Amino acid sequence: QVQLAESGGGLVQAGGSLRLSCAASGSISSLNSMGWYRQAPGKQRELVAGINGAGGTNYAESVKGRFAISRNNAKNTVDLQMNSLKPEDTAVYYCNLMQINFGVRRDYWGRGTQVTVSS
Fold this sequence. Notes:
By secondary structure, the chain is mainly β. The protein has strands at 2-7, 10-13, 18-26, 33-39, 46-51, 57-59, 67-72, 77-82, 91-101, 104-109, 113-118. Strands 2, 4, 5, 6, 9, 10 and 11 form a seven-stranded mixed β-sheet that branches. Strands 1-3-8-7 form a four-stranded antiparallel β-sheet, with no helix packed on it.
């Protein structure tokens, strides 16, 4: 089993910064891809940023240049540095770990952390 625990959400004014952190435990590997998703009220969950086992990253267009994802394989953590926050970044942010075993994908999720950006 895999457990993910997020921290670092909160309330911030527009233009401010927040750093989210996710600690993974259980049957994990540094080769697993990890990422951050978010879900705003009335909207579908969307990928914000991902990082694969080789350190390659990808970002949603809306956050490019403002957010940065990083991971520490020794500590099994993945962080999301969020700068120049906008009210439209307000959402519940979820940590994700993805495993593929024998061609079958399985996603694990944290409970989520609320990020609220006031205008």
